Queue: 3 jobs
Job 1
Amino acid sequence: MLLSILVAGLATFTRLASSAPHEPEVSVQLSRVDNTRIKAVLTNHAGLSISVLTPKSLFDPSPVQKVNVLKDDAFTTIAPNASLETTFDLAETFDLSANGQYTIYSDDFMLYGAANTTEIVGSVLYKSNELTIHVNGAKPALIAHAIVKRSTIDGTCRAYDWQLKAAFARCRDLAAGAARIPSITKFAEYFKTTEPRIQRIVAARFRAIQRECGAVNRGRARFNCKDSSGLCRKGYLAYAVTPGGQVFLCPSFHGLPMNGRSCHSQDKGHVVLHELTHLGEVYEPRCRDYAYSYEGIKRLGADKAYLNADTYGLYALAVLKGC
């Protein structure tokens, strides 16, 4: 069995139009550590140091989709001709329970800034080598089982019960209004196309989220308020785990307003909708994080916009508020 796996495709940031005069050259080399554990080495071939944004990239140690607020320690500075190295297990994010041969590669980009700064000035593309491995399916199956067991926590949101029910109702209303696609002009503003096929996909995803948010305790997703992975301490509002259909709500989520005042301000319903777009259990193909905020999503092309989580959240807010 030969499968191609896009390693970095599980978690990425938006690609920004570069304002830097010269895009630095980097390379990524993959190698095998053991059964499903892979080592990746990113080397800076530029003549200057750069600081790369590692969360939601190939070098983020967390095997989950998530929404986060950037902190200073999100950047890692790489000197000229120096390298950044990480090791990860494919079985944490892919079903490799079947014995067989797999081909692994990474074809993606990373945001970067000048050395020792947190100001993003551009994006740098990379494509790794292709690595072919034979996997013993029994060991990955044990890893995947452990992750699902760790992530499934019942009754952790009881203290926020009324808030979450209101957030689900808000999410349901946002999705219901957006699914009707009341304005083609507004649709094109956010999704960069009026193609009927994309309209059908967008509407179907919103209808699936509407059903999910209207089925409290009966839906396919499970919401948790206990941060079993420790990611909330890094500044996240929420994060999703798929496969598994898990959404983890961090303490900062509970501080959000129920209804944001401005057109694109975050609120609880918007975040719930955003996270549900990440779950393949709710709708396939699931969304990624190519861009955040209205300014960020404006830079996306049509091929990325309909697969970007925040595009759905912001479009739904704009439709409901008549922006």
Note: Residues 1-21, 64-69, 144-154 have pLDDT under 50 and may be disordered.
Job 2
Amino acid sequence: MNMLIDRQVLILQSIVENFITTNQPVGSKQLAQSIDFSSATIRNDMSKLEKEGLIKKTHISSGRVPSEKGYRYYVDYIKKDYELTSSESEKLKELMSDKYVSEDNYLEKNAIVLSDLTDCTAVILAPTKADRRINKVEVILLSSRSILVILVTNIGEVFQQNYKLDADFTAEDIAEVNKLLQTYFYDVDMATAHVIIHGELEKYLKTKVNNYDMIVVALNRLLQNKIKKTVALGGKYNLLKQPDIDNVEKLKEVVSLLEDDKIVELLDHNVEVTDSDTCIKIGKELELENIADLSLVSSKYNTSKGQGVIAVFGPKRMDYSKIMTLIGCVRDNLNNNLK
């Protein structure tokens, strides 16, 4: 991209910030009222910005709106630090002084406040050890139709769950199961565990144990119920209120996105930051089918239990400076108060 002169940067900034505020195309006459250049000069520079792919025409107006490239330029080179309003500062102060009851409860409160202040959908993933791995899985036969499944991680966590079965199992059956579990489940990361269960383990259980599928279901449930990341969601339906989500297919995609497993998968794929950095994905950078109108701003926080994720989903025309500042405040709060 060719370098923009200062005047063109100012015009692009004005177009982006006007559109963020009003959701209406921006014309040269409107810009001339707020910046000290003639309409003709502004039109010439808008033509230059359009040729660079930073702004684009709409079908319903002679004004211009930012393109994804324009938003990216704005985020990378133009946006300024955001100063919290007194109301925002007060809400954050209340949050920071709120009594800690439990991790889940505290994460949910932070997500709700973040969604209220941004008018977007806020997601916070509970902290997990980056190096958490499975060291042992064992099945204990309690009765012919009842088992206890135990899972031990490399950081000393022990998860266990009782399961009722719909068929009889013998001690010999369970011995075969444990022999295979010892082979496949030592020093295995969480993501690989699901692949193993539905791959090699299921293949060999099928040849050794009758009604093997019941064991597979029990193992899978333990992983899903005990190991899955806790998701705190605030403003779940804020995305559906956005005028950018303007057809049935987009609505379906957004509703699907708001399922816990989908959110975790999306964040795992898109949060490319360490420590206090912030990651911004705009529109098609998220690679969401049917939804090119959303953006994601995210960061990670650190506790003694490991790293967690804070994220805000919103329209491409979200107030990036404001949201980055608010995420930073919530990140500091979680860093300081989650032990």
Note: Residues 134 and 153 are 4 Å apart (CA to CA).
Job 3
Amino acid sequence: MISVTSQNKELSYTIFEERPVPDTVGNVARDSNASIPVGTDVFNTLRYRILLQPDTNSKLFSVGNTTGILLTAARIDRESLCHFSEKCRLLVYVAIQQNNGPFFITVKVNVNVRDINDNDPQFPQASMTVPIRENSAIGVTIDITPAVDLDVSRDLDGSLVPNLIVNSQLDRETKDFYSLVIQAVDGGVQPRSGVLTLNITVEDDNDNPPVFEHSQYNVSVNETLAPRSVITSVLASDRDIGFNGEVRYRFSSRQPEENANAFGIDESTGEIMSMQDLTNLQGRTLRLIVEAVDRGAKPLKAQAVVNVYVADAVNNPPSIRLTTISGANISLVKENAKPGYVVAHFIVVDVDSGTNGIVSCSSSRGNFALQKLVENEYK
């Protein structure tokens, strides 16, 4: 018992919660001064009982029938009786009645229950997962579900929300998971605590472009290669995940149309294939610009060069493009024409390359001679 007041048949007692049952609350017989109006002889015949009135806490208490001592009859748990209230006052009425006599009064008893630090701070769950985007600005805060302490005056009523603060740059590709232990400590003389395991997953941003395995690819094919034959494949990887890391392949739009028409690329596999007959391209090197593009909301891309050399595989006969000086189908020469008079001009065309494309010309007629002007051009 901490303090007792008595006035107009109303008593107040103060007890601590969670005391062993039964625990003495107070002496109603003495503190109600019931002996004054009846005298000592009648006082010794008085009987005491709890009045079971509505809106009272009568079931939590008992009173000695002849002693008038008020006791706890059940566990007194302040948190369940007065949830988060600063004051916890229980009400019980005690009837004092003369045994076989006319004397009868009721005493209103207020029992103030004081808190003890008997509850740990508790988070709603033992662990929780919080997602946060990589490249989040330093200083960004994320609210964490707070801990609650059922005791009073411990500064943990759930109204204070702890914040997770980003203190440094996050990079999912370097580290995509963090695990922290958050401890909540109350303000008791002998503090109690609770813990929360906070799992932080770093979500991906599209901050990495695809990277080709090689910046340049060189491949040689024969001019006789059948259309839709695979000639090579390119490969690019992306450190991001999900759509941000999915790579698709295509040709750059900024290259000769002839190159793009001659070859095609599978957007999923990166396989490059011929799309037409390559005879007219033999002996040439075609420069293809290949792009790898991810599927992020704002796609990033990379480029690589594929050099395709079309080798000469068939020795085609040369052709002669003849032009007569007279402009007729045949060359007309006067019988008195002087030696060196030009009667015709021609160009030799050979679609082959390399040694197959080297042409030499000669004449079997002694009256005429060939004179080379430039490569493959004669008079």
Note: Residues 315-378 form one domain.
